[in-house]
Structures are given as structure tokens and as C-alpha cells.
Amino acid sequence: MSFSDLFDSEFKQRNKGHFSAIVRVALADGIVHPEEKKFLDKLAARLEISETEYEEILNDPLKYPINPPYLHVQRLERLYDLTRMVHVDHHLEDQQEVMLRKLGIALGFTPSNVNYIIAKALSLVDKKVDGDTFVYEMQHMHK
Question: Where is the Co-chaperone DjlA N-terminal domain (predicted)?
């Protein structure tokens, strides 16, 4: 196995773990709502999750380990990606903020400040800032 194959394999496993964690959030209330399903479909395509893997994860989201971002910057980077996915075509319509709050809590942001964080994230993505600007602004939003 070449080094690039090892990297690709590890990258795909990490994507499956991320997707599995998001499926768990969507299933927190016991069902996947149609808006959430549309979002999961789009996310699976972006994370290169095959149809078989998608069904497997939906049936048993606990099968893959969660790889939570350890560093605050990594959480912000993941929040940036998720916010852009949700916001780009308003896939979740009125539910976008609700879903992003759930994802924000799953990423490790506290319930006491997740509303403020999501509002700021949506505002920045609406302004079409790049990833570095997003992280910088999020890190300095209290100053």
C-alpha cells in the first residue's frame, strides 16, 4: 500500500466519522426530517460517501467513530464548511439555523453561546468571506 493510498483511506474513514456524527445529530429526535435528508444527501456527496456507505451509516450511525475536532480552530473550520453547505442554496430553508445549532453543539460549542456563534457564522458566510477570514472573525468576535 502506497503512502497516498494510506492517506486516502484515512481521509475517507475520517469523512465517514464526520458524516456519522452529523447523522446522529439528525436522528437525535428519532427521525430524519425531509429537510435534514436533503442536507445529508448533499453532504454525503461532498464527503464522497458512497450509496452503500450512506445507507449503512443511516442504519447504524454508531458504527463509525466520531473524530471530534480537538482544536478550536478546527471546530471553526468545520463550522465554516457546514455553514457554507447549509447556506449556499438554503437547503434546509427555515430549519437551517436549527440544524446549524444542533451541529454547533455537536462540534463542541456550548449551548449558552451557540445561538450567537451560528448567527455570526451565517452573517459571515452571507458576506462570502473566505475560510481564513471566517476563522479570524469568529476568534475575534468578542473584541
Answer: 20-57
